[in-house]
Each structure stands twice: as structure tokens, then as C-alpha cells.
Write a structure and sequence with these properties.
Elements (H helix, E strand, L loop, with lengths): L1 H12 L3 H13 L6 H20 L3 H15 L11 H13 L3 H4 L19 H15 L3 H17 L6 H11 L4 H24 L3
Protein name: DUF309 domain-containing protein
InterPro entries: DUF309, TTHA0068_sf
Pfam families: DUF309
Length: about 210
């Protein structure tokens, strides 16, 4: 859960509210209903949706979600899993009273252990979640990105944690919005090259 949580926080802070929602949703759906973790992620998911609706002028949707999100987060200690939920609750109360505030200023940056995370602050495992989100949102081939992730994990294991070619490509794909298309092209080429090499080796024994 922690890697998905950190990934969602980082992309939320990058103003990618829908991607933050998706980062948390898959984990939230598997949690026991009514548990603290379930209420926590449910509240964050509705928080992101409230911000999204407010920024798009849907005041009714924004205020309703702000109220329900605040209720989900109400009984949790602050911080919870390192996240400053008190600050989130305060913003939700203000948003419910004045949803147009979302047009005047960005929502508060979420903090984990006192730090406002950005995508570039994440370790590899959390970055994997972001890479999958970027692939889905950008219409990239998910299987190619998934293969690159698997190859990166293999190289990390072989090299005792050093930053390998595929690690760098996956992390750049997740974090470099300006050059993402170019990074994906390079990532695809390296995946295809690795597949050809493996096919050549397998063919020797046929």
C-alpha cells in the first residue's frame, strides 16, 4: 500500500488528480470495508474527485464530495500513514463552503512524513505505479511498459540495486512529461532488442 500511496501523492502534487485517484483505487478496492486504511484511501479518492469537479466548475459535485471525503477522514489520527490528513480536512471544509476557491488557487500539496513528494522523489517500486498510470493515461502500450518494468527488476537484482538501463528508462518514462514520447520510443526499442536476443538464444536448442 505504501508505494501506491506515495505514487498517488506525487502525481496529485503534479496536478494530475485523475491519475492520483487511479493510483489509490486499485488498493482501496481490496481493503476491508470500514477499516482505517479503507476510509483513508476512500477519503483521499473523494478528495481528488472534489478538487477535479471544483476546477471544472461542477460546484454541486465538488461540495458533495468534499463533505463525504471529510467524513471518511474525520476519525483518523493526524498524520495517518505519514500523510497530513488534518490539512486535507481543513481544505475540504473550506472547499465545501466556497468551491470556487479551487479556481483561485491550487489545492494544498500533500505531504508524507512532512515532505511534499514529487514524482522525481519516488523510489523505483513507487515509480512503477506512476509508469503504469502514465502508460494508461497516455495511450502507450501497457505490455511494453510492463516488460520494461520486469527487465528493470531483473537488472536491479543482478546488479545489487544499481541504476540500470531499464530502471532509468522506466523512471524517466514516469517522470519526464516533456520527453515521454521519446523515452517511450527508446524503451520500446530496448524491449524489442532484448526480445530478439532471447529468441535467438532459444532458437539454438530447437
Amino acid at each position: 500500500m505504501d508505494d501506491a500511496l506515495r505514487a498517488g501523492v506525487a502525481v496529485f502534487n503534479a496536478s494530475d488528480y485523475h491519475d492520483a485517484h487511479d493510483a489509490w483505487e486499485a488498493v482501496w478496492l481490496d481493503l476491508p470495508e470500514g477499516s482505517d486504511d479503507e476510509r483513508f484511501l476512500h477519503g483521499l479518492i473523494q478528495f481528488t474527485a472534489a478538487v477535479h469537479h471544483a476546477r471544472n466548475g461542477n460546484w454541486t459535485g465538488a461540495t458533495g464530495l468534499a463533505e463525504s471525503a471529510r467524513e471518511y477522514l474525520a476519525a483518523l489520527p493526524d498524520p495517518y500513514r505519514g500523510v497530513d490528513v488534518g490539512r486535507v480536512r481543513s481544505y475540504l471544509s473550506a472547499l465545501r463552503a466556497d468551491p470556487e476557491r479551487a479556481e483561485r488557487a491550487r489545492p494544498p500539496r500533500l505531504r508524507v512524513d512532512g515532505r511534499p513528494l514529487a514524482p522525481t522523489d519516488l523510489g523505483f517500486d513507487a515509480t512503477v505505479h506512476v509508469a503504469r498510470l502514465r502508460a494508461e493515461a497516455g495511450g502507450y502500450d501497457a505490455s511494453t511498459v510492463e516488460t520494461a518494468i520486469d527487465l528493470a527488476r531483473e537488472e536491479i537484482a543482478d546488479d545489487a540495486g544499481s541504476r540500470t538501463r531499464f530502471t532509468a528508462l522506466v523512471m524517466d518514462f514516469a517522470t519526464d512529461g516533456v520527453h515521454r514520447d521519446l523515452v517511450y520510443q527508446r524503451l520500446s526499442e530496448h524491449v524489442a532488442r532484448r526480445d530478439r536476443r532471447r529468441s535467438d538464444v532459444e532458437g539454438l536448442f530447437e
